[in-house]
Amino acid sequence: MPFETTEVSANADFDELIRVEWESYEQPYCRLIRLFCPILGDGSDARLAALNDSTERQLQWHSGDPTSHWIKVVDSETGRIAGAACWHIYEENPYCTQSDEECTWYPAGEAREMANSLMAQFLTPRMKYMAKAHIFLDICFVHPEYRRRGIGRLLMAWGVNKADEMGLESYIDATEAGVPLYEMCGYVKASRVDFNASKDEPSPQWNKLQAELLPFAFWPMWRPVGGKFGQDTMEPWKHGA
Question: Of 76, 85, 223, whose CA–CA distance to 155 is shortest?
């Protein structure tokens, strides 16, 4: 089955793109999807509203960020999106100013408080390790019907080749499912990072949110310029150790 790798250029792609993203993260279920794409309410109407909101928000993020490059792999026989990835090309340090990410897609109150806390935990490693020019893989997914057909390698090849062309290091915050693919592409991982939402005397709502979003762990992963590990190569998390 032939596949074609192209950069997403049409806003119309986002309806299918984000639907595929959701289906990919839900089979098997990965709790990270709900940090960025919560379903506020019950029933099919709540899910559809959340999907539409997520699609609009991610399109706005992409359209407003010149470093953002969405790459899709398309089944050339059916025209379906088989998988996609969002790469960011940072030609200078993107973390010169302190990020204060506010998860406004959660309602104000305990839900947003927890989301803000988890988001800060998610952003901290990349801000600590990659305060320099680099290429960053924000998200990568393959639809369940297209897995184990080389789609992930095609999506990775775009960013890896771009990093090598530009002479840049690259970085990923990897889920457990993604680690093997990224290791095959020349990335090495740091220690596991586990989300923590502990709180003194948590409310029933806090406990409910905690059960929805946790447990979740990720691994900072890094690839040197050209993928070349020499005698003096040092992973960014070892600097100053």
Answer: 85
Report which DSSP code applies to 144.
G
CA distance 169 to 160: 9
In 3D space, the residue among 167, 154, 124 whose CA is nearest the CA of residue 4 turns out to be 154
Encode the chain (241 residues) as per-residue pLDDT tens digits. Answer: 699 999 998 888 999 999 999 999 999 999 999 999 999 998 889 999 999 999 999 999 999 999 999 999 999 999 999 999 999 999 999 999 766 679 999 999 999 999 999 999 999 999 999 999 999 999 999 999 999 999 999 999 999 999 999 999 999 999 999 999 999 999 999 999 999 999 999 999 999 999 999 999 999 999 999 999 998 899 999 986 4
Closest CA to 180 of 235, 143, 221, 135: 221
Task: Tally the residues of the chain.
Answer: 241
Task: Evaluate the CA torsion angle 152, 157, 158, 163 in order and state its sign.
Answer: positive
Contact 216, 163 (CB under 8 A): no
The DSSP call for residue 212 is: H
